[in-house]
Amino acid sequence: MAKLYFNYSTMNAGKSTVLLQAAHNYAERGMATYLLTAQFDNRAGEGRIASRIGIGEAADTFSLNDDLFRKIKARLATGPCACVFIDEAQFLSSDQVWQLARAVDDLGVPVMAYGLRVDFRGELFPGSATLLALADEMREVRTICHCGKKATMVVRQDAEGRALTGGNQVQIGGNETYVSLCRRHWRAAMEDGDATLV
């Protein structure tokens, strides 16, 4: 039975690596997949999902105006598809997550979405919030803070390495912009007076 999966984490946890490995597992067994990533995140090139460890794969793209149910239905019309993979799922709209759920329910294709849970302010992305509400299964992709604890938060830094507390929710960047931290060190970085660094 097809399901909607949400694989979530903070920055630099290896979400894209896990996605690419899962897609490779299908390909190794002769099963076709459909990969999608956010159109405006072109750090790896237009229409490409890539990992920091150097692996990558071509992908179709989505923008906020796309109807993903129709996109998936059109892909299925071209031939068999064992699974749909969505990278950068935090950039989905709430409506698009519902479209993915409809594709699972009505088209019978599994959808595996990979994305951030929260932004640098500790707030849910709209796509992630809806995925948390609708996903049949959720899996955390874990990474660690510099202290060794599980990192669940992320800070956005300026050019001097200072944590930013304001700005747009979406800003494309990698290690030069974002650092994953445990909640305690995130609070300290965001200048919460009750947080102490050890």
Automatic annotation (TrEMBL):
One of its GO terms (molecular function) is thymidine kinase activity. It is found in: Cytoplasm. ATP binds at S9, T10, M11, N12, A13, G14, K15, S16, D87, E88, A89, Q90. The active site is at E88. It catalyses: thymidine + ATP = dTMP + ADP + H(+). It is an enzyme of class 2 (transferase). Transmembrane segments: none annotated. Its EC number is 2.7.1.21. Its main location: cytoplasm. Keywords: ATP-binding, Cytoplasm, DNA synthesis, Kinase, Metal-binding, Nucleotide-binding, Transferase, Zinc. Belongs to the thymidine kinase family. Homotetramer. This is Thymidine kinase.
